[in-house]
Amino acid sequence: MRAGRGAPVIAVLGCYGAVGGSVVRRLREAGAGPLRLGGRDLDRVRALIGTGSGGPAGAEAATGGAVTGAAVTDVGGMEARAGADEAVAVDLRDAAALAAFCEGCHVVVNCAGPSSRILDTVARAALTAGAHYVDVAGDAAVRDRLVAAGLPAGSTVRRGSTGQGSAGHGSAGHGSDGQGFDGQGFAGHGSAGQSRAGRVVVLAAGMMPGLSALLPRHLAGQGFDRVDRLTAHVGGVDRFTPAAALDYVASLSDGYATPLAVWRGHQVIPRASRPRRGVELPHFPGRVNAYPYLSAEAERLARSLGFAEVEWSSVFDGELTLAALARLHDLDADTAAGELVRTSRLEAFGRTPYFQMVFRMEGEAAGRPVTRTLVARAADSYELSAAVAVLAAGAVLRGLVRPGLHDAADVLDAGAVFQALLDDPAVTRLEVVDGVAPDVEVEEGVL
């Protein structure tokens, strides 16, 4: 099941999902390939590459597939030849099928979900096959499992004088910090073990976690000598997919986030905030509902940038989804996720979907107080996740990330990500403004 020699094979698992479909489209637009596309439903995978069960037979992979046309394009300084795209039926519960899917790939991009149940399953298969790995989710639980299995935490990407990432000590997989793995079936000795040495794993390469740390990092570099306070409002009218809903439910109880907490006095303060209904927030249309929480990513961001205060809220433009959240603690995970999917679809019915991230940062420059706000808006959150995943995969392909385990926000250049999003047709608004719109939070009620 190996592709032809030449261009690196990029595998996308969960290729026809909300994020995966966008990742595939973006990789093709960049001229990257050949692509190996995987999912449980082979007909849906084939349809994604334009072959369908009744279409041209193409060239079949070991577990089923087809070929698309070929083109040669320059991708981020690398020549990538797109051709011989493969459609592969793969079920994550089938270890042999997953191993075959990863075999021969240069990088595996995991868009399958829910991450809270998949955990490190795909990462292990990719590393065992000798591939690099990019996960649009895969936060703390995946990281802990991979570290326990012997995957070393990597250092961050080296920066060039322009602020862009630069390669440092050679290409990924051959850097001076390359290490093998031990235990849990990862490594061994001799050639098989060597094929897994120096692999790169990039987790949290999506919208949140991922872009939710990259954009504040970019904002902190916009003329601040010191940053003191961050206020974040993230959300809008956005539908939950079943996998996203399961991950959201899991995040409320697995340590990913602390509901109603804030960061104050350089520490976590539990239950220091409360949900708000019917408030007007700067840059959001009309009245919305806000649910405050502090994620592990936001806490890491506060520590690394030195914030004294962080207040972070999910924003729901409508009543149904926030009301559903109040009932989740009485439901099992699958029922709760189903409720979120149902209510978010009802919320979006007949409305124009949007997803928005608003970061207001306060600090000091030249001895004077400074306030700046970054606003990012897209049709949905899944396009933003896909954009970050493709940028992370590109950085790995270009040898910009040193071997080991990383979060995307630690190895992608925040300024370069911002610039890339400025040119992204899925992003309808992206700007940094001085000051902030009048703070007119008018509370009509508290949940």
Task: Provide a concise account of the structure shown.
With 447 residues, this protein is an alpha/beta fold.
Cα(first) to Cα(last) distance is 55 Å
Sheet having the most strands: 11 strands, mixed
* DSSP strand tally: 22
Q: Overall pLDDT, averaged? A: 80
Outline the structure in words.
With 447 residues, the chain is of the alpha/beta class. Helices cover 30% and strands 27% of the residues. The chain has helices at residues 18-29, 42-48, 95-102, 115-118, 121-128, 140-148, 190-194, 211-220, 242-251, 296-305, 320-325, 333-348, 381-397, 408-411, 414-422, and strands spanning 10-13, 35-39, 71-75, 78-82, 86-89, 107-110, 132-135, 158-159, 165-166, 200-203, 226-237, 257-259, 262-264, 267-269, 276-280, 287-295, 309-316, 354-365, 368-378, 404-407, 427-434, 445-446. Strands 11, 12, 13, 14, 15, 16, 17, 18, 19, 21 and 22 form an eleven-stranded mixed β-sheet that branches. The chain has a seven-stranded parallel β-sheet with strand order 5-2-1-6-7-10-20, with helices on both faces. Strands 3-4 form a two-stranded antiparallel sheet. The chain is globular, with a radius of gyration of 22 Å. Mean pLDDT is 80; it is low at 51-82, 156-195 and 437-447.
